[in-house]
Amino acid sequence: MLKPVVIKADNLYKTLQGQEILKGFSLSVKQGEIVAIIGQSGKGKSVFLKHLVGLMKPDSGKITINGVDITSADRKGLTNVRKKFGYVFQNGALLDSMNIFDNVALPLREVLNLKEDEVREIVLKELELVGLRDAVWKSPSEVSGGMIRRVALARALVMRPEIILFDEPTTGLDPIISRAILKHIRLLHKKYKFTGVLITHQIPQAFDVVQKVAMIYEGKAVVVETPENIMKCTHPIVCQFIHGRLDGPIKEDYF
What we know:
alpha/beta, globular, single chain, about 260 residues, four-stranded antiparallel β-sheet
């Protein structure tokens, strides 16, 4: 049985401060898939995520979420679509004024009319899934960078979103902690079967988590393939990028 397309970006163009960032970018993500987006720094990956949640609108092109065109949606329609999303920010984006429990509980308290004992039950369950039950009353300043990313995972999942966006969730972490974060993402995806978009430079480790990989280059998705086919390195741009070679189509003015 074919899975339905949850996210569809069609021929997106976006110029920021006179620079063309997206130049015909297209991508489809099916239900239950995680798609990794790889590519050069500062070349449109995070910009695309902002388009998915309506923080930016394309100059032209269209994005649909479950068939709903969010590029033409009004505020109410956009709010309804945003409820489908969880977001794991690059550095966790926890609130320093709150402890770990309250950071994870925040979406529940702001959106749902739950009793406090219900909030407590949900939050403790999510923190246990990411191995942080013992850190629940600590402040963000009292835990490590890896723990902060796990708290961010728990917060993104606490509302049971259909879609989760991961904006470089392992940036700045050492290789062992990075692998641990990716392992948690894989296990949580297996449990909840959410649809995801993962921006990453963790190559090839992140490929164990995803079902497809899209390489963005000069504002377009030049290749969308399975991780296995990406690693076969048949496309010169992809091959140069994943192996970090100086010689190839990606020119020195980028370095």
